Amino acid sequence: MGRAFVYVILGGGVAAGYAALEFTKRGVSHGELCIISEEPVAPYERPALSKGFLLPEDPSRLPSFHTCVGANEERLTPKWYKEQGIELVLGTQVKSADFRRKTLLTAAGETISYKILIIATGARALKLEEFGVKGSDAENVCYLRDMGDANTLVDLMKSFPGGNAVVIGGGYIGMECAASLVINKINVTMVFPEEHCMARLFTPKIASYYEDYYKSKGVRFIKGTVLSSFEIDSDGKVAAVILKDGSRLPSDMVVVGIGIRPNTSLFEGQLTLEKGGIKVNGKMQSSNSSVYAVGDVAAFPVKLFGEIRRLEHVDSARKSARHAVAAIMEPNKMSEFDYLPFFYSRVFALSWQFYGDNAGEVIHFGDFSGSTFGAYWVNKGHLVGSFLEGGTKDEYEAIAKVTRLKPAIENIGELERQGLGFALAISQKPPQPTVPVNVREADLIVGKPIYAWHATAGVALAASIAAFAYWYGRRRRRW
Ligand SMILES: Cc1cc2nc3c(=O)[nH]c(=O)nc-3n(C[C@H](O)[C@H](O)[C@H](O)COP(=O)(O)OP(=O)(O)OC[C@H]3O[C@@H](n4cnc5c(N)ncnc54)[C@H](O)[C@@H]3O)c2cc1C
């Protein structure tokens, strides 16, 4: 038995939802599009699972966070898919893909064929067993990737009011879960091998701010070591976590956030893989021209940095999905995907955003004893990354804009002195008559010397030139 569609999206997560909306905006006909997902629910905003979903009071529940609410778009409920004539094949795992025949085989034995396939299979949580530790199947150990995991975590929190939780891993899942556990009045110990939390992104100075904040909420950190085993009780539950140095942490529950692995196994040997994901071009098209890949599973060219990257962030899932659909529906109109990497997190009353690349020299700015501070990264003489905690909407927009511009930075000390003001100056409205009016088009290309920031010329002039160039560049893009 089998069904045939023009377009099939394999995977029903964030990217799938945004792709579906884009298909409808671009005139997909009823019956042409199908989404196959092993999850039992229509696509939703996954970041909600470690935030609103875990709140003790008035927690977020579906349908409130179906895609695409995260981008202030329509909320796509199952009814919406029905009205649009989009087939949702839920609770269905695809077991194999045959790209020569253009077919997918589901676990239920159905063959679904396509003309164009979008792979949006995302990633899975890494398991402790992959690091030689047994015990993931104990009922008080949980991961957090999908709704099933989130429900398990909620049930565990309810079962152990005032109990002890050990969080394994200091990345964003660990940090967000730890915050939610504390809000649920659970005592939290975080264990991770790095010297500080969020080691892939945070500098020691930034990390120390968050760790101090967490400590003020009662979280205990055990750093530079790993879990070696679980002590299992007679009910098969974890009673304690044993660390490599032999110490024993009594625990009512364990939350594991030790990273993810893109879901590529169905495609190995059939598509070119890179950086652990499916390699695609600037149209999100894989090595097979009928197959596109988006979201966490896609390794795509990041023009701004001139290299292939695979990102694990929701904004990239949303935008890459839209871009792929646009490229499929209007191939002649679409330019290459030009993406500024963006990542955010919200914990307790804190909220930060990061844009670009955290490579090169770090320049911290702001008040690290207060609530608004940040950092710039300067690599090969250009500002390539910006981080801001506690910013306003305008301030976040400003750091996004300045990062995309990649201005040349010649005076690090001045950048440090200006701090957030540098980004704000650049993002301001176009400067008035004193700005150069004879800017050559070539100078407006990001990273060209027009942005050179000479200490002698003064920061204000540099910022006003850059602001003009930014405004001028935007004008060109828009019209
Ligand atoms: C708890 C949590 C919190 C997060 N918070 C943030 C945040 O604050 N900020 C941020 O930038 N990012 C955050 N992220 C990351 C963000 O959610 C992901 O980048 C995003 O979900 C990726 O979208 P995707 O569509 O590529 O993959 P996913 O959303 O993971 O969707 C993949 C889908 O494919 C399905 N699937 C996979 N294989 C098959 C198969 N063989 N057959 C059928 N279906 C299949 C899966 O079941 C799933 O439905 C968070 C992630 C998690 C888990």
What does this structure look like?
InterPro entries: FAD-oxidoreductase/Apoptosis, FAD/NAD-bd_sf, FAD/NAD-binding_dom, FAD/NAD-linked_Rdtase_dimer_sf, MDHAR3-like_C. Pfam families: MDHAR3-like_C (PF21791), Pyr_redox_2 (PF07992). Residues 7-320 form the FAD/NAD(P)-binding domain. It is an enzyme of class 1 (oxidoreductase). With 479 residues, the chain is of the alpha/beta class. The protein folds into three domains: 2-124 and 261-329, FAD/NAD(P)-binding domain (3-Layer(bba) Sandwich), CATH 3.50.50.60; 128-258, FAD/NAD(P)-binding domain; 349-473, Enolase-like, domain 1. The protein contains ten helices and 28 strands. It has a five-stranded parallel sheet with strand order 4-3-2-8-21. Helix 1 (14-25) packs parallel to helix 6. The longest helix has 20 residues, at 459-478. It is globular and about 55 Å long. It starts with a strand and ends with a helix. Residues 431-479 have low confidence and may be disordered. Bound molecules: flavin-adenine dinucleotide (FAD). Residues 11-16, 36-39, 46-47, 49-50, 93-94, 120-123, 144-145, 173, 263, 266, 295-297, 312-315, 317, 343-345 line the site of flavin-adenine dinucleotide.
Note the main attributes of this structure.
single chain, alpha/beta, FAD/NAD(P)-binding domain, Enolase-like, domain 1, 3 domains, 5-stranded parallel beta sheet, globular, disordered C terminus, binds flavin-adenine dinucleotide, redox-active center, membrane, monodehydroascorbate reductase (NADH) activity, NAD, EC 1.6.5.4
